[in-house]
Amino acid sequence: MSSARIFSRIIGTGSYLPGEPVTNHDLVARGINTSDEWIVERTGIHARHLAPEHVSCSDLALEASRRALVAAGKEPGDIDLVIVATSTPDFIFPSAAALLQDKLGIRNGAAAFDVQAVCSGFVYALAIAEKFIRSGSHRCALVVGAEVFSRILDWDDRGTCVLFGDGAGAAVLAASDEPGILATAIHADGSHSGILSVPGQICGGKVIGRPFLQMEGQAVFKFAVRVLKEVAEEVLAQAGLSVVDIDWLIPHQANVRIINATAKKLALPAEKVIVTVGHHGNTSAASIPLALDEAVRAGRIERGDTLLLEGVGGGFTWGATLLKF
Ligand SMILES: CC(C)(COP(=O)(O)OP(=O)(O)OC[C@H]1O[C@@H](n2cnc3c(N)ncnc32)[C@H](O)[C@@H]1OP(=O)(O)O)[C@@H](O)C(=O)NCCC(=O)NCCS
Predict the structure, then answer these.
(1) How far apart are alpha carbons 15 and 203 in whole angstroms?
(2) Which CATH superfamily is domain 182-324 in?
(3) Which residues form ligand 1's pocket by a CB distance below 6 Å?
(4) CA-to-CA distance for 72 and 299, rounded, in angstroms?
(5) pLDDT tens digits, residue range 3-48?
(6) Looking at the whole model, is its pTM more than 0.85?
(7) Tens-digit pLDDT profile for residues 230-249
């Protein structure tokens, strides 16, 4: 007897940015040796949000998740898989996902774990959740990207501190008779770990190494544009689609110049690209679900649209998800 094929669909999204926006001018006023003009010209970033000290990764994840659950018409008890993509979890352990599960009041023993793939974390988490659902082992996943990158920034390093911000985005992914997610691809190449890293650890109660983000900006830029084009083409080929079939590209929101260069390489018109980095900076694993949710709530993305989500980040990691919304 053959069973019907199981697909997975995003049935609701949510996002959350903590506090008031901190503008480029605010950073200058705080004594950072930069200018609004430099930041906007190089990155397209005008502002970012910074979580207060008592607010953790799982707190941001909680707000985004609550909104996604409402949008999906689901209760916390309907969730049987919680995945949080983050590089800035509350603790070494338990995972932010386990803490989120508790904060949401999920008491059904749902599996909960974090995925650490830096800025590609959300597409990694989505690819994992999709496979769990397609296998039939799980029915309804909460997939979250949540970060407090402000905690790992060296505020004396103007080359990096102006680029990042805090935030969270979430999607509820449910089993469905119809697709849904059409294709996923995730990749890594650890030989490039040195160009973007936070090379610190805790040992014997002390911080060993340097617990701040460091980056070779130009090397990251070139690598990002190349792999974002390649992985987009990879998922399109998997699904038997081409660039003209894409209604919306939702790239990792690191930098307007990387986004524009990628769209140009793909020959995708700028009107089909969701860009939100200007008002929240690079929120790492949170950026794709944040951009997705904002575009959904603004009525730009509609049910039935074909979306290409793609990210790249430290590791180096990269990946993409092609889906029918
Ligand atoms: C970071 C990035 C914006 C820097 O732009 P760039 O054109 O490569 O700039 P450089 O690092 O070469 O620095 C150029 C000059 O600007 C200065 N500068 C750096 N940060 C500055 C800031 N915040 N404000 C003002 N000047 C700054 C540098 O000191 C340098 O000055 P110098 O020429 O006198 O030495 C760019 O490399 C980039 O976007 N990289 C990708 C970053 C990214 O998205 N990372 C995350 C990926 S997941």
Answers:
(1) 34
(2) Thiolase/Chalcone synthase (3.40.47.10)
(3) 34, 38-39, 42-43, 119, 158-159, 162, 215, 217-218, 220-221, 224, 254-255, 258, 282, 312-313
(4) 16
(5) 579 999 999 999 999 999 999 999 999 999 999 999 999 999 999 9
(6) yes
(7) 999 999 999 999 999 999 99
One fold for both 7-178 and 182-324?
yes
Q: Is 162 exposed, middle or buried (0-12, 13-18, 19+ CB in 10 A)?
A: buried
- The encoded tokens of residue 261 equal 């260069």
Statement: residue 1 has pLDDT above 80: no
Phi-psi region of 212 (alpha: psi -120 to 50; beta: other; left: phi over 0): beta
Query: Annotated active-site positions, please?
Result: 119, 252, 282
Give, in order, the Cα–Cα distances in Å from 31 to each of 23, 28, 35: 13, 5, 11
Supply the residue whose CA is at minimum distance from atom 8 of ligand 1. Answer: 218
Determine the straight-line distance between the first and last CA of the chain, rounded to whole angstroms: 31
Q: Are 159 and 43 in contact (CB under 8 A)?
A: no
Rounded Cα–Cα distance for residues 174 and 159 (Å):
41
Cα of 272 vs centre of ligand 1, distance in Å, is 27
Atom 24 of ligand 1, nearest CA residue: 34
Mean pLDDT, residues 162-183: 97
Q: How far apart are CA 75 and CA 69, in angstroms?
A: 6
- 40, 197, 218, 223, best to mutate for ligand 1 pocket (most atoms within 8 Å of CB): 218
- Domain 7-178: CATH superfamily, name plus number: Thiolase/Chalcone synthase (3.40.47.10)
HSE (side-chain half, CA atoms, 13 Å) at 25: 0
Residue 230 structure tokens:
């390649």
Domain ranges in the chain are: 7-178, 182-324
